[in-house]
Amino acid sequence: MAADVxxxxxxxxxxxxxxxxxxxxxxxxxxPLVTAVANRVVDGQRPEIAVMESWLRSLGRTPPPAHDHSxxxxxxxxxxxxxxxxxxxxxxxxxxxxxxxxxTLMIRHHEGAVGMAALELRRGRDRAxxxxxxxxxxxxxxxxxxxxxxxxxxxxxxxxxxxxxxPVPGTAGRDSSDTA
Length: 180
Known about the structure:
mainly alpha; Ferritin; 6 helices; elongated
């Protein structure tokens, strides 16, 4: 059960940061595909947060408060969390610069969530949290592919070169298909 609790307690702030980044898109991008990505983040992750918060409450635990950008406090820097400096750059970017940075950060963020979900599938025991992890993994892998396609359309392809994802703790030597 400890792995399941940790998954929920770490995924909630992780999702909240994705919601924050997605919330910036409407006022900063003119690209309808980037807007669509941001809308899908909100539509998918807000309900997942609600499920995980409810699950934690059912165990008598208090869901984590609003996310903390100092990723080191939660040991989540390996999970694609944007730094405060990166978030500041995203908040000030507009147009193509916003689109480039948004896609780079969101791809890395989603890759981190996939790593977190893979860890839950290996270590977790709770049926509801394992199902959540499977949903996160499959949904975010699809979104990563979509975002890479948008990058190609925009002539970017920068996330592979510019900002590689750090290794996910506990997954050394494993690939994302190792989920059991």
